[in-house]
From TrEMBL:
PANTHER family: INOSINE-5'-MONOPHOSPHATE DEHYDROGENASE, INOSINE-5-MONOPHOSPHATE DEHYDROGENASE RELATED. Mycophenolic acid (MPA) is a non-competitive inhibitor that prevents formation of the closed enzyme conformation by binding to the same site as the amobile flap. In contrast, mizoribine monophosphate (MZP) is a competitive inhibitor that induces the closed conformation. MPA is a potent inhibitor of mammalian IMPDHs but a poor inhibitor of the bacterial enzymes. MZP is a more potent inhibitor of bacterial IMPDH. Keywords: CBS domain, Cytoplasm, GMP biosynthesis, Metal-binding, NAD, Oxidoreductase, Potassium, Purine biosynthesis. InterPro entries: Aldolase_TIM, CBS_dom, CBS_dom_sf, IMP_DH, IMP_DH/GMP_Rdtase_CS, IMP_DH_GMPRt. Residues 170-226 form the CBS domain. This is Inosine-5'-monophosphate dehydrogenase. It comes from the Eukaryota. It catalyses: IMP + NAD(+) + H2O = XMP + NADH + H(+). Gene3D superfamilies: Aldolase class I (3.20.20.70). It comes from Crotalaria pallida. Its EC number is 1.1.1.205. Belongs to the IMPDH/GMPR family. K(+) binds at residues 319, 321, 324. The lineage of its organism: Eukaryota, Viridiplantae, Streptophyta, Embryophyta, Tracheophyta. GO terms for biological process: GMP biosynthetic process; GTP biosynthetic process.
Length: 505
């Protein structure tokens, strides 16, 4: 008898696994471990968002109106990622959101209210979402600062509900520091001047924000931020923005370029359309210095059309988001693991980075998306409910939550997102998303560093010391995968316990 051991053939190559006619999600597949010869801390997660824009961490906040506005953009940039500010508002407002995020170098953003000394404060509502009102002669950020009114102080001294003239409840003018001061320099200024707040001022004298000692101590308490964050050549945060593909979006684009946007995402549920192809050509002709990301796509054919049109990046995903119902309503889409692998396998040949958009519920999904060929992952629900996400907290069944809605929900469509689904001219609106709520996650400045550490450990287990290394292992057929049965998925999760406490950090 022949006892010669058979050649080692463990698991499947991605090429073989994803060419069997099945549409796989992230939970359907699992990577087999490879050889480790480096510590997790040595894993390099830097990657390209688009041809010319590189990030130190491969995380992108989705252009949804319950996820990405100024606060999220500043926070994601400080972590080394980027946010794409949604277009479900007017062009002027969207441009102002971009400017607000880019006009500071700390992940602290209050959206201050400006009033003149002669104005009257009748209730806490006059403060908007800001903890203070900045007082200038003309109620403009361009006018010299005279002082500020603290919401907390106003509530203490006006418990009887009486109104207050601004000049009568004015705190002294805080010390001014350059807008480009980072957290360390602001901390030094507070200690040196022995004050509790400083005002951030741009080079042209424009007032940006007020930063308090409480703000600085809060941010300092989070895990250490990575390096200098995502910063452009001019020292400002990198910020992206979404636009549609209609004629009026050309005017929106002009507003965004003037606001200093660094990358533009063409926001469409099905990107392989004549409207998007024409918009790509328009953008590359009018603003060749701005990278344009096309999508969404899930097939190699779709990707090839957009690559030929000149995109600098591709957004992959259709119906995979937690609040998206496109696959159910329209019977069109693809499992996200399959979609990411297929599109990446053709996009990399042209040097076009891929963004895996949707389906991210945990750090393992991020590892899978990146290892299957994506250069970055775009997240919605993963970031929704955080301190930096738009909206106010409410209580449901004793839990603190924030609203989270799909851009294909009827509620979002009434604000203009229906053009994303090419339905803005339709008489009947068909929802391709839902409105829901997610629990309070705290600040992204706190939980994202833990997520990134988990991703690094995942890369270590598959033997990849960088994203490029993971892609090389995949395409050289060294990295192997298998499909998980339903029982295997149950076994791989928490099971067999009477009770448990779910904490990851």
């Amino acid at each position: 008898m022949d006892f010669t051991p058979p050649p080692i053939e463990d698991g499947f190559t991605a090429e073989k696994l994803f060419n069997q006619g099945f549409s796989y999600t992230y939970d359907d597949v699992i990577f087999l471990p490879h050889y480790i010869d480096f510590p997790a801390e040595a894993v390099d997660l830097s990657s390209n968002l688009s041809r010319n824009l590189r990030l130190s961490v491969p995380l992108v906040a989705s252009p949804m109106d319950t996820v990405s506005e100024s606060a999220m953009a500043a926070a994601m940039a400080s972590l080394g990622g980027i946010a794409v500010i949604h277009s479900n508002t007017t062009a002027a407002v969207q441009a102002s959101l971009v400017r607000a995020a880019k006009s500071r170098r700390v992940p602290i953003l209050h959206d201050p209210v400006f009033l003149p000394p002669s104005a009257e404060i009748s209730s806490a509502d006059d403060f908007g979402d800001s903890p203070f009102i900045l007082v200038t002669e003309t109620a403009s950020s361009k006018s010299p600062l005279l002082g500020y009114v603290s919401r907390q102080d106003f509530l203490k001294t006006n418990q009887n509900g009486k109104s207050c003239r601004v000049r009568d409840c004015l705190a002294e003018s805080p010390v001014s520091v350059p807008w480009s001061y980072d957290l360390g320099k602001i901390d030094e200024a507070l200690n040196e001047k022995k004050v509790n707040s400083v005002c951030l001022v741009r080079d042209d004298g424009e007032l940006v924000d007020l930063v308090t000692r409480e703000d600085v101590d809060r941010v300092k308490g989070y895990p250490k931020l990575l390096g200098k964050g995502s910063v452009g050549p001019n020292g400002e945060w990198l910020v992206g923005a979404a636009i549609g593909t209609r004629e009026q979006d050309k005017e929106r684009l002009e507003h965004l370029v003037k606001a200093g946007v660094n990358v533009v995402v063409l926001d469409s549920s099905q990107g392989n359309s004549i409207y998007q192809l024409e918009m790509i050509k328009y953008m590359k002709n009018m603003y060749p210095e701005i990278d344009v990301i096309g999508g969404n796509v899930v097939t190699m054919y779709q990707a090839e059309k957009l690559i030929q049109a000149g995109v600098d990046g591709l957004r992959v995903g259709m119906g995979s988001g937690s609040i998206c119902t496109t696959q159910e309503v329209c019977a069109v889409g693809r499992g996200q693991a399959t979609a990411v692998y297929k599109v990446s396998s053709i996009a990399y040949k042209s040097g076009v980075p891929v963004i895996a958009d949707g389906g991210i519920s945990n750090s393992g999904h991020i590892v899978k998306a990146l290892s299957l060929g994506a250069s970055t992952v775009m997240m919605g629900s993963f970031l929704a409910g955080s301190t930096e996400a738009p909206g106010t907290y409410e209580y449901q069944n004793g839990q603190r939550v924030k609203k989270y809605r799909g851009m294909g929900s009827l509620e979002a469509m009434t604000k203009g997102s229906d053009q994303r689904y090419l339905g803005d001219t339709a008489k009947l609106k068909i929802a391709q998303g839902v409105v829901g709520a997610v629990k309070d996650k705290g600040s992204v400045l706190k939980f994202i560093p833990y997520t990134l550490q988990a991703v690094k450990q995942g890369f270590q287990d598959i033997g990849a010391s960088s994203l490029q290394s993971a892609h090389d292992l995949l395409r050289s057929r060294v990295l192997r995968l298998e499909v998980r049965t339903g029982a295997a998925q149950v076994e791989g999760g928490i099971h067999g316990l009477v009770s448990y406490e779910k904490k990851y950090y």
